Fold this sequence. Notes:
By secondary structure, the chain is α/β, with parallel strands linked by helices.
Amino acid sequence: MEKITSKVVVFAREEDVLASKYEENYEEVMANDIIMLPNEKISEFNKLHNVLGNKKISNNSVLISHPYKDNYFISIEDSDEIIQREKLSNTADLARLLGAKKFEVISISQQESEKKYELGIDGKLKINTLKINVKKSIDEDTKKVYTMSNKYPGANPDYQKALEKLKEYGLIIDPEVKAL
């Protein structure tokens, strides 16, 4: 196996990978820089590539390429959190290079999820009809808090080094960083 340069990697059963080539829109989907690999290639993939995320690669795993690190992939389930943390860390490093004395971030993300359970039983007894319906709904709020606080000596700005880091971190095209 060679190093993968696609933007998205999907692992699936070998028969699903082979069958996907006969799907009506296969060419169109694969033109979007997606590659499907059989599950048997997972260990080989792990030897050649760096994978970030909490979830172990398994059947139906979807990985996306790291936005600015070659040969790094991120589990799609963890991608938002990992990329956000790296971006904040890299932005803190840029602030240091530009002479900041302090860089502080508090990021709170809230995710709402709703679960519904429904059970229906219909039946007849000799005399009566029996009908039971049970419904349960659960609303959950999940809150993730990420804080970062860095203090620096506040040295003279090194604009050249900061520009190099902007390019290295891929932040030179980021609209939020450009706005700074």
